[in-house]
Amino acid sequence: MDAVDRKILAVLQENGRLTVTELAAHIGLSVSPCHRRLRELERSGAIRGYRAVVDAEAIGLAFEALVFVTMRQAESPPLAVAPA
What we know:
The protein is an all-alpha fold. Helices cover 40% and strands 0% of the residues.
């Protein structure tokens, strides 16, 4: 990973919705090498995904709850849970 890759990551962290053409213009590369670098960052796991950050209040979820649960040993055997 070099300075150009780090710049790609920094720009995408600010705006992950940029097109490859817009991203290339921001970092001063032509589209083809920018696209190659972007694919490699995705392939290597440096970029794990793209997400929408949802404003909870804007969708009617205006509060958060912090819940603590204490489990007591039960007489029945524990349930086996398959990994997700």
